[in-house]
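Repro:
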Amino acid sequence: MKVQLYAVCLGKEWEWRITIHSQTDIQYWFEQYAADAGLVMFEPFISLGQGVRILQRLNADDRLEFESHDERVLERLRKLVHEYNIPIGEDLRMQKIIYEVWKQGKYPSNTLDAYVYAIIVEACSGRSLLVEEFQQLLLAIGVDLGSGDAWLSYLQLAHLNGDIEIANGLEVTERWGWRRGFRKTTSYTCKRCGSGAERMFWSDCLHCGQACPYCEECLTMGRARFCSLLVIGRSREVAPSGLNTMGSQLGQRGVEDREREEQEEHLRAYIEPWGLSEAQARASLEGLRYISGVAVEDSREKRTGYKRVGWPGSRARKGSERAGADTEVKAKAKVNHQFPRRFLIWAVTGAGKTEMIFPLIHHTVARGGRVLIATPRKDVVLELQPRIGRAFTNYSVVTLYGGSDQRWEQGQITIATTHQLLRFHEAFDLVIIDEIDAFPYHNNPMLAYAAAKVCKPSGTNILLSATPPRAARQAAKRGRLPHVRVPVRYHRHPLPVPQLVSVPTLKRVVQSKAMPVPLFKKLVASVERGAQVFVFVPNIQLVEPMVNLLRAKLSHGMSVAILCIEGTSSKDLARTEKVQLFRNREIRVLVTTTILERGVTVPKSDVFIMDADSQLFDEAALVQMAGRAGRSQDDPAGKVYFAAKEITQSQKEAIRQIKQMNRIARKQGYLLRGK
């Protein structure tokens, strides 16, 4: 993308800028400020990345008076051009433009359609798009601006009005380090995924005329170069709820009893329609209290520091009065700037986390806010869509994943895979991150960065997990992460506690084709009691051998006439069909890897985890796999077995965590009497 460097004077002060469509800027400043504005345009055009880099240096320098220091300005620019090896040689020149000359029609004016402008701004709201994606968006919303540069004019005007931010793909930082002998170091960071120098790849660039870096980390979502155009749409704020939060940690102290009761009644009104259990309702109420305590700023101007000005639309004030007002607004914006707050819902497997977030979603969309539910896997997105759609029939629901046909739709409720978050920026008032400990979100800085930037500064991040990462658990324990625990499932029975079974390694078992007697007896007991049996193995290579062994051993000496045993893994093209057959009881024993440790609920099931001492099975994985048992009210005491040669710390911690949740549930009175 090529840009033009220019300086604008409003009154007496000069400000450096760059533009992707100089004709738009000339018309904008003179229409808004008339003779109070002055412009100095520089040629030739340079790449967007080069323009951003020069702009940073110029804005760090003292301001220059163009009337008396033309040569000084050009000399300064020539030095920067030489320093950055920008291939424009001695062609650098400047041109002053004054209002009287513009008024005579020497410079052509644009005539833009106000309706088209509004559509573009609305479609870009909360999005972060590369130029190719922006053009795809225009086609999707039915805006045809022809093959010319009209789209550049609309974008530049929206940027000047503060409705859209125009940026380059990578952020550049220059530092002088004494450890390097006072040499300058330059680093690049991707503005979409947050990746640094280790993920930058350099190649020759047509626009720069020199080597230019791009980000390899998010390359599958489009090439973000240093000189590529990034379109970032502004989002509107929703009205504050008008409620104060309660409690020593989540709100103001000394709230009057009557006001407290009114607030509680208002919040409970969002919980009552969903038929939640006592534990679920308490968690939802704590989440609502937290959301209600987020301070929402008075207006969009305070957050962004921009005013809605320029054509098409109302005329703004001119001259120094307007400039002074902008300065005041920008100062307030810095004072009022906020960051999204975080709240953890730590709920055991099978506790009904989806139902718990319904009141939080309802509260947000009822006030005109936008909600995002982000989950690691596409299959979970597709599973959630009908449930959310049925629960919120009066609101638009959009699902986003690779290949989604709703890619460019704006919904009040958006359900997306975590990778899709890269295309958003401060778009949502409530961001719910499901399974924060799961692949690919866990230990992935790119997705963590994306999840943080999609929430508005005044919004809230709700984190959901049955097995939060250690850092989150420690932050919650030390009071740095507000949270609520849900230690019981909806049927109010305790979680099945895993039993330890001492067996040789699975590799030795399948090689010897001899099933250990203690393990065999427990497998037979599970099948004969009518349970569906999960058999987890640590890697794909062990799936088929284990299936063959089970078929050979379980087919003899059992009262079950026909026993269907199958295996599946991430490489199995028939995985979805097999899981459905397993749910339908047409498959009774399913050998699988950790791909089924989450998101699969089978009413009556037992769980066998082979090689539970494997390094591939950490504490979280063991808890999640154990969580497949006992989820049904008809069979709450399903069996879980850790079959291993050794007892590892991960096994101990998993058992300790499950027992701890049962103790908390019993202490808080959530368990049924006698359980």
